[in-house]
Design goal:
The complex is a heterodimer of chains A (175) and B (316). With 175 residues, chain A is α/β, with parallel strands linked by helices. Chain A has a single domain, classed as 3-Layer(aba) Sandwich (Rossmann fold), CATH 3.40.50. Chain A contains four helices and seven strands, in the order αβαββαβββαβ. A five-stranded parallel β-sheet of chain A has the order 2-1-3-4-5. Chain A has a two-stranded antiparallel ribbon with strand order 6-7. Chain B has a five-stranded parallel β-sheet, with helices on both faces. A four-stranded parallel β-sheet of chain B has the order 2-1-3-4, with helices on both faces. The longest helix of chain B has 19 residues. The two termini of chain B are 21 Å apart. The chains are: A alpha/beta (175), B alpha/beta (316). Chains A and B meet through strand 3 and helix 3 of A and helix 1 and helix 11 of B.
């Protein structure tokens, strides 16, 4: 996916979010670190263009909630979660770049619920690559990319990677 | 950044990178403490024993809270109510604990080196919560975190540690930690409180509190242990306060902003003037909050186990 394609996809996702929620009343965005954050920021920019209003935007770091936190050789680095608004009674849209096993989303759901009781939680992802290990599905999908477990889907944003795009990497190495 | 240490015995030998990693991790855990539900499931299933052979209120509560905030299971052991009174050795206590499948041991002991000894008897990760007059690394880390919160960069910051340096584990952990972070360190106190080894630490040494205040950006004021008076190390509380007490008058003479830390518990009117301890230049309560966050970070970083590493996941 090239930069123009990525931009069109983000625009469509923003329209879908606004359409499905009939506006942006009580809507908040939570980007999952790392690349869910620039994606959420871009969605917010598009939503502002459509509705004339920026949504409250928070950052989720799900490391403390992972189910594999002690199963890796290297201890994952814990970064800060930043939610400086109330999510009680709100519709929370969790935003992440790639939906794969669903384990990150499970962790994100647990974390969000520790912050309050949203009316509804929705999930927006840029890429759904399949291979779910949990009963989780996305409400908004930028692109479905069928993959094998040996492949890697790499989403890049200028904000963190200097370049925009979605790449499928066939490493052949099964993890 | 990897954190490769199995134990936290002291800050001696720690690099700036390692300390920065612990403090960054602590900042993330600090956010948890301000949540509506200040608890995360990170250490679920881990069992921690708090072995306190010496009395402690603040440090023990701080560790216990950190453990609970991380959802670990913890048990407390204090020497005054335990088998130690019945003559059990440290080694036997440790072996018994090991047999109960403990992942981490937090130990405070009156003898320097007790945590190091434990690392040789058990497999669990050991955290030194104060050993004799040696080190108190989590106190050093929380002091560094508190200073970093205020000054961003510790390089070149002038920190003076005031009081009974010779008997202070807080002083040693602070000296190692501050020097690793590039701060300049000075020690100040009566000659009877200055240890022989002070000459080798590469710190400034002051025997006059006014000169010290003139030099310093930060004063880390140590608690004066009143029982030292009976050993003849200082003549009286009043004399100590008159000669080394940190007072508003002394700070005013220096005519600059000074930041004050104190590891607690405070002897009001002895090492520090009561009013000053509650003033805007005191970060004493920030230290207490940061203490829980730092201990959460240390518990988290030492809980990792290198299994086969075949766990999958990574991407969502």
């Amino acid at each position: 996916m090239d930069p123009a394609g990525l931009n069109r996809t983000v625009t469509r996702l923003a329209h879908e979010i606004v359409e499905r929620n009939r506006g942006v009343e009580d809507l908040v965005l939570l980007g999952v670190r790392t690349r869910g954050v620039p994606l959420a920021q871009r969605l917010n920019g598009k939503i502002e263009q459509i509705e004339g209003k920026l949504l409250p935007l928070g950052v989720l770091d799900v490391t403390m909630y992972r189910d594999d936190v002690f199963k890796k050789i290297k201890q994952p680095v814990v970064r800060t979660t930043e939610i400086d608004f109330d999510i009680d009674g709100k519709t929370v849209v969790i935003v992440d770049d790639v939906l794969y096993t669903g384990r990150t989303v499970r962790a994100a759901l647990d974390e969000v619920i520790d912050f309050g009781r949203p009316t509804e939680i929705q999930l927006a992802v840029l890429v759904d690559r399949g291979h779910r290990e949990l009963p989780i599905h996305a409400d908004y999908v930028g692109k479905n990319i069928p993959t094998s477990p040996g492949e890697e889907v790499r989403v890049q944003f200028k904000e963190v990677d200097d370049v925009d795009g979605v790449f499928l990497i066939k490493s052949g190495k099964v993890d | 950044m990897e954190f490769n240490r199995k134990h936290l015995l002291g800050l001696e030998g720690f690099t700036k990178k390692e300390i920065t990693h612990i403090l960054d991790t602590a900042e993330s855990f600090k956010e948890v403490l301000s949540r509506p539900i200040p608890k995360v499931p990170t250490l679920r299933g881990k069992t921690i024993v708090n072995l306190f052979f010496e009395d402690s209120t603040r440090t023990r509560i701080s560790f216990e809270l950190a453990e609970k905030r991380l959802s670990a299971d913890s048990v407390n052991f204090s020497a005054s109510t335990s088998s130690v009174k019945k003559g059990e050795t440290l080694r036997d206590t440790a072996r018994n604990i090991e047999a109960m499948k403990i992942d981490l041991v937090v130990i405070r002991h009156g003898a320097a080196g007790a945590p190091h000894f434990l690392t040789r008897c058990v497999d669990a990760a050991i955290i030194n919560a104060g050993d004799g007059a040696h080190e108190h690394p989590t106190q050093g880390l929380l002091d560094l975190m508190t200073l970093r919160d205020k000054f961003d960069n510790l390089k070149g910051l002038k920190v003076a540690i005031v009081g009974d340096i010779a008997h202070s584990r807080v002083a040693r952990s602070n000296i190692y930690g501050l020097q690793a972070m590039g701060a300049e360190v000075a020690l100040c106190g009566p000659a009877t409180f200055m240890p022989y080894e002070a000459a080798h630490w590469g710190t400034e040494i002051f025997f006059d509190i006014d000169e010290c205040i003139e030099w310093a950006d930060v004063l880390n004021v140590l608690r004066i242990q009143l029982e030292r008076q009976h050993k003849g190390l200082f003549p009286s509380i009043r004399e100590y306060h008159a000669l080394f007490g940190v007072t508003r008058k002394r700070l005013d003479q220096a005519r600059k902003d000074i930041t004050i830390l104190h590891p607690g518990p405070i002897n009001r009117g002895v090492e520090i003037e009561s009013e000053l301890a509650d003033s805007e230049c005191s970060l004493i309560l920030n230290q207490v909050t940061n203490g829980v966050a730092v201990r959460m970070a240390v518990l988290y970083l030492l809980s990792g186990e290198s299994e086969d590493g075949s766990a999958k996941g990574g991407e969502s």
